[in-house]
């Protein structure tokens, strides 16, 4: 029987069973402030959801964009940020859960210590080609 990266055994054949996927407190306690982007991704086969734990460094930003197809839940795990919306900015801090409805324009500007958050949304069918420089959205201005 093959196992998972964390050493747990692979699930037995039969109906799917609930599993612990990530200990976000432990993930954050590793203290690698230099790590940015996706620190963890949901990668279970046959899933209907996508989820990511994302770290944006101090003064970094996710540029304002519109997600046309998917509602997204965003839960701040650590740090602070501003959610940039067309009707004004909203402060985000650890524990704040936000709904980003599809069709809404939004961006994130990390606070002075950066921000780490969990996003969850319906799984996107297939891969999308990203425009050149899409990864630059997470870099601080001028970097």
Features:
7-stranded antiparallel β-sheet, mainly beta, 41% strand, globular
Structure description:
The structure is a single chain. With 143 residues, this protein is mainly β. It has one helix spanning 24-29; strands at residues 37-41, 49-56, 61-66, 72-85, 90-93, 97-100, 105-122. Strands 1, 2, 3, 4, 5, 6 and 7 form a 7-stranded antiparallel β-sheet that branches. Strand 4 and strand 5 (90-93) form a beta hairpin. The longest helix is centred in the first third of the chain and has 6 residues, at 24-29. The mean pLDDT is 85.
Distance between the termini: 47 Å
Unreliable stretches, pLDDT < 50, 5 or more residues? none
| Radius of gyration from CA coordinates | 16 Å
Please, what is the average pLDDT?
85
Would you kindly provide a brief summary of this structure?
With 143 residues, the chain is mainly beta.
Write the layout of secondary structure elements.
Layout: H1 24-29, E1 37-41, E2 49-56, E3 61-66, E4 72-85, E5 90-93, E6 97-100, E7 105-122
Antiparallel strand pairs: 1-2, 2-7, 3-7, 4-5, 4-6, 4-7
